[in-house]
Amino acid sequence: ILVAIQSINGIVDGVVGSRLLGSEAMAAVGLFSPLLSLLYAVAFIIILGSQVLGSQYAGKGEAENTNRIFSITVCLITIVGVIVGIILTVFSEPLARLLKGDELLAAYMRGVAFSFLFDVMGAIFADYLQLVGNVKKTYLGMAMLIVTNVLLNVIFIRQFDMGVFGLGFATTLSIVITCVVMGHGFFSKKSRVHLILKELPWNKVLDIMKYGSSAATFNLVLALKGFALNYIVLYIGGDVALGALSVYNSILGVTGA
């Protein structure tokens, strides 16, 4: 689901951004993608580690422990996601220069700064919706993601002239809406899996990291490959080539998902 969310957002930004903002905007999206893959390497550790522990407790019929693992996962994601969002917002310009970008990339990063938090939160909600047998809500959330991202892109870029920042902010807001659709039920005690804030098992954080660590390797390799490929394409073909590569990678991601 996390890969699907990333890919859907990428292809929507690619199609809408290329038509409304041009190749330079798409080059900014492309330059950001390897950094996002690097962040997802961290996210997959939390997601898969939580998946393993949560499923173990659910299989044993230990509902309270399942709730605690779900809750500690939500807390971990919130902490990591807020830190990432602050860094991308405050240090957008130096990060853009480091990634061989300019103010367009910096503006896009500010727009999507907190999308990582809600991307990963949505993936966790999807995991636990499957656990409680409510997959339909996941599909509804994904449909909302596509519709709202397209509509918000058009509104922010055409109506409010927010440029590449609007492109990124539309992505963030659409995934927030998706999270609300998929996750609102987890805040009710009537749900078999629900959020609790008492007696959280912080001692299980290391177990989550251990079980999920193998998932980080592949995304780390993808990130390193992406950084290298972006520099090569940008050097040889410029913004147009990098924008084309960004759109292609988005389509490839959706096909793989």
What does it look like?
By secondary structure, the chain is mainly alpha-helical. It has helices at 2-20, 23-59, 63-90, 92-98, 103-112, 115-131, 135-159, 163-183, 205-212, 214-256. The mean pLDDT is 83.
Keywords:
257 residues, mainly alpha, 84% helix
Concise description?
With 257 residues, this protein is an all-alpha fold. It has ten helices and no strands.
Helix tally equals 10
End-to-end distance = 8 Å
Provide the helix percentage: over 70%
Average pLDDT metric: 83
Task: Assign an overall shape.
Answer: globular
Radius of gyration: 18 Å
Q: Could you say which structural class the secondary elements and strand pairing correspond to?
A: mainly alpha
Helix and strand sequence: HHHHHHHHHH
**Poorly predicted segments:** none
Relative strand content: under 5%
The major sheet is characterized as: none
Number of strands: 0
